[in-house]
Amino acid sequence: MQPLATLLEAALFAASRPLTLEDLASLDPGAGELAVRAAIDEIRSMYGEEHGVELVEIAGGWQFLTRREYAETIDRAQFALRPRRLSPAALETLAIIAYRQPVGRLEVDEIRGVDSGAVIDKLLERGLIEVVTRGEGLGRPLLYGTTPSFLEILGLKDLEDLPRLEELSVALRRPAPVDEPE
Amino acid sequence: MAELVRRLLEYQQIRELVDWLGHAADVRAERFGRGYEAPPPDAPPAPLQIDLNDLLAAAERVIALIPEPMLHRVVPRPLDIEGATARITALLAEREQVAWSDIVGPAATIVDVLSTFIALLELAKRSALTLSQPEPFGPMVITRAAPRDAA
């Protein structure tokens, strides 16, 4: 392995969160982005199926994770804890925020048909959403968006990994601009 | 009607997405990362967000904490100074010296106490008796005045 690859391997092994390209590049300021990407590819190819862990691209970065086939055994032995499952209400709220972000609480309430204030507070506490800006409407409501932690708990590289809007019903798309009358 | 259908479709789609997200989370939960997690940095508190109903509810809670104003009614109490004077005079006619408790008795009302005290002061002013208190906070001693004093 190249020295840069071994350095990145050590950092990725030590980290408990996905490391971004920027994180990894900061380890060796002399190395360019291309060299870092090449080193990542080298590590990924090295950790093939003959290893129990693999380098996974997740939440905008890379992280060593165990292979899925060992999940049940590790879980049964209680060597590691699975993350807490999200409630249906939390998933509903996350889905709306992920697709409509930045979105305010009133819009979430309207789509769900119930008050979502408590759920939004919980998601804020867990760091899965954050306030990204304020709306222009009355009272300048807070608008929420998802965080890298949201991607991480779902195992997504980025928001593009979500089902595409074209695959969904028109109902969830943002309202189309009003066409000029013909 | 069209709006209702749109909202139902919208919610149905949300339910499909919930299934998708739930499955993705389950799959992700089957891969473990490093166990150590650095303590998260102290996040700044989320900006306060309240709507009008929240504000009104909070105002009502604050108003509920304000105590009711306490009203005191002052009522005139008819004092029986003449009766107290007669009682004192009668006692002093029997004995040269009496105690406060001898005059007001064990179950004196506030009217009795006030009436007796004013009557004592009035009689003392007229030199019909002398009032003394041998020690601070001690019992009051009422003594019949000598005939020349009373004159």
Task: Write up this protein.
The complex is a heterodimer of chains A (182) and B (151). Chain A has two domains: 3-77, Orthogonal Bundle (Arc Repressor Mutant, subunit A), CATH 1.10.10; 88-172, Arc Repressor Mutant, subunit A, CATH 1.10.10.10. Helix content of chain A is 41%, strand content 14%. In chain A, a hairpin with a 7-residue loop joins strand 4 (129-134) and strand 5 (142-146). Chain A is an alpha+beta fold and 182 residues long. Chain A has helices at residues 3-14, 21-25, 33-46, 71-77, 88-100, 105-112, 117-125, 148-154, and strands at residues 53-58, 61-66, 103-104, 129-134, 142-146. Chain A is globular and about 60 Å long. In chain A, strands 3-5-4 form a three-stranded antiparallel sheet. Chain B has helices spanning 2-28, 52-65, 81-94, 100-104, 110-125, 147-150, and strands at residues 97-99, 129-132, 141-144. In chain B, strands 1-3-2 form a three-stranded antiparallel sheet. The longest helix of chain B has 27 residues, at 2-28. The model of chain B has no long low-confidence stretch (mean pLDDT 84). Chain A binds chain B through residues 13-17, 56, 63-68, 71-72, 74, 80, 82-83, 85-86, 88, 91-92, 94-96, 98-99, 105, 111-113, 121, 124, 127, 131, 139, 141-142, 152-156, 162-163, 168-169, 171-172, and chain B through 6-7, 9-18, 20-22, 24-38, 40, 43, 46-47, 49, 51.
Calculate Rg of chain A over CA atoms: 20 Å
CATH architecture of the largest domain in chain A: Orthogonal Bundle
In CATH, the topology of the largest domain in chain A is named Arc Repressor Mutant, subunit A
Structural class of chain B: mainly alpha
Number of helices of chain B: 6
Low-confidence region ranges of chain B: none
Q: Overall 3D geometry of chain A? A: globular
Percentage of helical residues of chain B? 40-55%
How many strands appear in the DSSP assignment of chain A?
5
Distance between the termini of chain B: 108 Å
- CATH architecture heading of the domain at 81-150 in chain B: Orthogonal Bundle
Largest sheet report of chain A: 3 strands, antiparallel
Structural class of chain A: alpha+beta
Helix content of chain A: 40-55%
Cα gyration radius of chain B (Å)? 42 Å
Low-confidence stretches of chain A: 177-182
Percent of sequence in beta strands of chain A: 5-15%
**The CATH fourth-level homologous superfamily of the largest domain in chain A:** Winged helix-like DNA-binding domain superfamily/Winged helix DNA-binding domain
CATH class of the largest domain in chain A: Mainly Alpha
